[in-house]
């Protein structure tokens, strides 16, 4: 079982490797603690204990969640700290708080446990000839434009795969970190910020400021002229590219605390953002392909800014240990093929959407 799992997981950067050991990067000092170890030294239950205590903040509550004794959890954590030769938790009056090394291990532990569970599911599915489940995060502009056609073609190609799809916004990719998603098609994070992810850009596009029809700012030419307006946004201010990042940092962020202004509202739903823009004076920043997709459904317009706006990328994002062949690779291939086909599509709406994106050579 362990050898099968190690083969599935591959090499995890800054984490566990099947024969090499554990490397921890702690803080800005880039201090590394290395301990050569045999995979047999690390037990799955130890990682489960780590996850449970981190989530509950208490040995007692973690033990209750797992259905074991508090002493068993305490012993398992001590074993894990001995193996890694680092302190994983700081004990405070308010409970157990992860150390810097513990926070790093927590992300890897969730991935490892998730991959073990996936490996078990795959083996059971192989034996029972069951349907394979694939969990996918999709960015709104793809979801509301070409995704139905992608699903139709993919299901004809792989009728044995059951897809679970959710909307993905911003660059947090919590579902990937927690192992709930197999991959995402979404906003490309900076590779240096996510060493645990594989990021492959697929499309480039620009963003635009959206407003309702007849908005007082509908003819503004400068982003600076929009300061003081209220915004409904789908991800954190720091995740926007230039010039929006600098604009929000200057006018909508407290320089002392870094907190966002009360005039910046946040939602985890692109449809909600569009609905609010259509029915209020709030502005939003949306990808051009999403605006073109939704113009027939929502009464929205675009502020004709003359500012130079940095291109953003829609990317294939997954954990580095996730195999990208099989169903995952086929899904991406179908998506790319259909986007290329839209370039010669005679339908006016498809043509408008296609003109707002540029394919990045693979």
Give an account of the 3D structure.
This protein has about 350 residues and is an alpha+beta fold. The protein has three domains: about 1-120, Arc Repressor Mutant, subunit A, CATH 1.10.10.10; about 130-205 and about 310-360, Periplasmic binding protein-like II (D-Maltodextrin-Binding Protein, domain 2, 3-Layer(aba) Sandwich), CATH 3.40.190.10; about 205-300, D-Maltodextrin-Binding Protein, domain 2 (3-Layer(aba) Sandwich), CATH 3.40.190. It is built from 13 helices and 15 strands. The strands form five sheets. A six-stranded mixed β-sheet has the order 6-5-7-14-8-15, with helices on both faces. A hairpin with a 2-residue loop joins strand 3 (about 90) and strand 4 (about 95-100). Helix 1 (about 1-10) crosses helix 5. The longest helix is centred in the N-terminal third of the chain and has 29 residues, at about 100-130. It starts with a helix and ends with a strand.
List keywords for this structure.
single chain, 362 residues, Arc Repressor Mutant, subunit A, D-Maltodextrin-Binding Protein, domain 2
